[in-house]
Amino acid sequence: MKVVISVPGKIIITGEHAVVYGKPALAAAVDKRLTVTLTTYPELREAGSRYAMTKGKLVKKAVEIMQNYLGAKFPTNFNLEIISDIPRGACMGSSAALGVGIVTAFLVATSGNSKLDHRLINELAYKVDKFQHGNPSGVDTSTVTFGGFVWYRKEFEFLKSLFKFQFKVANSLQHFYLINTGKPKESTKEMVEKFKPNSVDDFEIVTKQITQAIHDEDELSLMKGIKENGRLLEKAGMVSNSTASIIRSIEKSGGVAKISGGGGFKDKSGVLPVYHKNLNKLKQSIKKYGLEVMKANLGTEGVRIEKIVV
């Protein structure tokens, strides 16, 4: 049996880091996807298991979690292949997508059910993400699992709330781009531990402001909120000086930008979600930094089955 699963990447529009402290975050799935292909074979005649898969501690952990969950249903003879368009180390949810993809592939292959149980997938993938990041909020796995625009809040480890936008985001607000400043030297886990603001209430206020602005199609308030959120993250030490310089250049050209996810304070800070109505001006504003602009289609579909071959 062959199962092919694809999972989107994500960006956090607002609320990163504060979400670990029980404040809301707004995230969106993006149109960069990771694909997991799981092929299972008939049982081997000789005793023991045999399998081939992409190397890596995170992959092995995800497989281990599924082996523990499935028990006797876990296939002993399989091949696992992973291909990804999501930039690694850019704070775009590549590890979350990997966990979700592997979890989904094994669930589909062992159940024969093409209807996905998104809540179960998210629950199991969260265990994988904890191995990677220590104390994640769960917003990454939730966003790439469910897709769309996600309002997320973690009250307690046992109580998390998630709401997908039930309204269509206006085309007039589709001026988002991505700029990858490079892989941070710090891990997301390190950045989460470093985040010690005097108050996280300001993060909640700006997250609500941005969410309301998207709903109301209020572009001016949206841009103001993104800029304010960026400043809060800079004050909290989540943004390097070099990345702050890039953001200032974008602002001077008429746009706004901020980090998304963990960030980085030593040098690179991962991907920057950018809102700009003039692509040419945006490109000119970052030309001296040698960076490229990627169009960002936000709110794309979450985890999905691409193919099942019995």
Low-confidence stretches: none
List the domain count as a whole number.
2
Say what the CATH topology of the largest domain is. Ribosomal Protein S5, domain 2
Please, how many helices? 9
* Spatial gap, N to C terminus: 5 Å
Order of helices and strands: EEEHEHHHEEEHHHHEEHEE
Helix content: 25-40%
Residue share in β-strands? 15-25%
Largest sheet entry:
7 strands, mixed
Radius of gyration: 20 Å
Any idea what the CATH architecture of the largest domain is? 2-Layer Sandwich
Mean pLDDT: 92
Shape: globular
The CATH class of the largest domain is identified as Alpha Beta
How many strand units? Answer: 11
Report the structural category: alpha+beta
GO molecular function, one term: ATP binding
Pfam families: GHMP_kinases_N
Pathway: Isoprenoid biosynthesis; isopentenyl diphosphate biosynthesis via mevalonate pathway; isopentenyl diphosphate from (R)-mevalonate: step 1/3
Organism: Candidatus Roizmanbacteria bacterium CG22_combo_CG10-13_8_21_14_all_38_20
